[in-house]
Predict the 3D structure of the following.
Amino acid sequence: MTAQTHAPELPPPYQLVQLAGVDGTNMEARRRVEGGAPDKTVIWASSQSMGRGRRGRSWSSPVGNLYFSILIRPKYPAAEVMQLGFIMANAIANAVEGVLAKTTSIQVKWPNDVMVNGKKISGILLESESSGDNTVQWAIIGVGVNIESQPSKTEGDFVATSIASEGGDASIGEMLSATIRHFDAGIDEWREHGFAPVRKAWLERAYGIGKKINVRLPNETIPGTFKALDKNGALVMVVDSKQEDRIITAGDVFFSSTADKVD
């Protein structure tokens, strides 16, 4: 089932904006920010003409998959806003787990991917704006989940997959509802207990700890080993050339034999 004929049920106070098509749900969410849209506004579109991933990459967005963005007005320090991406990754993983066989391997890849059986099924794009006191005024969490189809090309290191390709059966609306429910529970836990339980849940599904990686930054590529996730959500790697730890707060991570691949 793929038709969006029935709006999903979202927990209050989430407000759903349902669109047939849009340039990008994150772009539409930014326009709604400027119009004063409230906290937990959800933009959901059947397709995107200019869907984006991280670092401006295009995100294939045909009808049949899930594309949405959530506007959050967290009033949190800017240093903590990246943690929203981990909350969402956990939520997507839980939602996907609910529609696939129990033996399916579902993992999360730093900083923003969800994988099924070693293939990419979902990506997250987090954008935010801070005020002069370094408090986040708003954050937008964009999500794409492959349900009916997936791109034929690889997504970064990994071949892409979809719920249908992995033997699952779920409507777009059902997946949106489930993801929002899990995300809302994660947000509540984060606000009450901090990042520690979010980090613990993420690490239980983490892909690649202990594996060789290349981290691609704007001006350099660093080879090393994925060592850990620090208490704030940054990647900790052991740099090959120095055999010392380096903290990475933003970058692209490539694993093993695909580490030098250009996507």
The first strand starts at residue 15 and ends at 22. The CA atoms of residues 53 and 59 lie 6 Å apart. The chain has a mean pLDDT of 88. Residues 212-258 form a domain with the SH3 type barrels. fold (CATH 2.30.30.100).
